[in-house]
Amino acid sequence: MASTQQEQREAAQEISEAFVEAYNTGDTSLIEPVVTDDFVCHHHGAGVELHGASEYAGRIKEMRGAFSEFKMAEDILVVEGDLAAAQFSWGGTHDGPFQGIDPTNESVHTSSLCLMRMDDGKLDEMWIYSDTPGMLEQLGLEPRFGED
């Protein structure tokens, strides 16, 4: 069981690295070993709730299909007990359909804030807040406030 602060930090770093690598390479099999069986992701930027590694893998595939040259990086990781907060920057070229938006061929560079709760060294629950208005602006679209 990841119980000391150092063990929790190492677990959070392993989780973060697995997600970044999965997004960057498309290898979604990296997600299952770092999440619990009951893993849930509340993605406020996309207005969806994803349950389990397989549903989250679908989100990664959606992002990589919508944005070629997709790259993600961890900018900040802070860990306190079984909680962690991370800021990720990501970008790519919007050349595939994305959440009902036809390809714009525009480049996007934005960030997301992720709050995580771990259980026994694995990710159990995650809340993602993305800069959706900023991304839409980069795509040349009007932000759709109040819509999920």
UniProtKB/TrEMBL annotation:
GO terms for biological process: polyketide metabolic process. It comes from the Archaea. SUPFAM superfamilies: NTF2-like. Coiled coil: none annotated. It holds the Pfam family SnoaL. This is Ester cyclase. The lineage of its organism: Archaea, Methanobacteriati, Methanobacteriota, Stenosarchaea group, Halobacteria.
